[in-house]
Amino acid sequence: MIDYVIMSSLTIDAGRRARLQEIVEKDRAQVAHDIAVIELTAEATQLSMPVTPECSNGLGLCHGGMIYFLADTAVGVATNTEPGDDQWVTASATITHLAPARVGDTLHARCTLSAAHGRSRVYTTEVRSGGHIVAVSQATMMRTRGVASATDRA
Predict the structure, then answer these.
(1) d(CA 66, CA 71)
(2) How far apart are CA 53 and CA 35, in angstroms?
(3) Strands 11-12 and 36-40
(4) Are 123 and 141 in contact (CB under 8 A)?
(5) Does residue 133 fall inside a structural domain?
(6) Which residue has the higher pLDDT, 12 or 4?
(7) I need a labelling partner for 45 at 20 to 30 A (CA). Which of 61, 69, 124, 127 fits?
(8) CA 115 from centroid of its chain's CA atoms
(9) Exposure of 39 by Cβ count < 10 A (0-12 exposed, 13-18 middle, 19+ buried)?
């Protein structure tokens, strides 16, 4: 599965490939939902995810949380594959759902940097299905250094 995620990449900066491999090896959720990296450059990150029956809600539509999950994963991949040892975490995020996605669809999330200052960055992510925008998310990412332990969070 890990090879699928990386080998399906159409456009990927060579410098980000090693960091991406590290993320994918540890991110069981990304692998479990067959998220593929389509584009990974300094300008944009694009991921895709098939909408499976496990992604559906009680109405038979793709659960909104799964759409957000894809958008958040795109931003995490964008920030955490940059050169250096910094780690980025989501400080806050919003999502606006505009249209439903259905089982059998393939979602495409494309995120771009909207603003940056100090330890914070704001990314905008459009999630599409069949060329239609189904959601737009905006996430504020916070730079941390190293791996936070449980005592660091207290």
Answers:
(1) 9
(2) 15
(3) parallel
(4) yes
(5) yes
(6) 12
(7) 61
(8) 18
(9) buried
- Full-model pTM: 0.83
Tell me if 146 sits within 8 A of 87, measured CB to CB: yes
Provide the token pair at 26: 């540890």
- Best CA proximity match to 123, nearest among 97, 147, 146, 91: 91
Distance CA 78, CA 147 (A): 18
pLDDT tens by residue, 93-115: 999 999 999 999 999 999 999 99
> Would you say residue 152 lies in a domain?
no
- Whether 130 is covered by a domain: the verdict is yes
The answer to whether residues 55 and 66 touch, using CB atoms and an 8 Å cutoff, is: yes
| pLDDT greater than 90 at residue 71 | yes
Domain that holds residue 55: 2-145
Indicate the helix (H) or strand (E) that contains 147: none
Question: What's phi and psi for 64, nearest 5 deg?
Answer: -60, -30
Number of domains, the chain: 1
Of 22 and 52, more confident: 52
Give the residue from 134, 111, 113 showing the smallest Cα distance to 122. 113
Domain CATH for 114: 3.10.129.10
Taking 50 as the threshold, does the pLDDT of residue 129 lie above it?
A: yes
Asked if the structure places residue 104 within a domain, the reply is yes
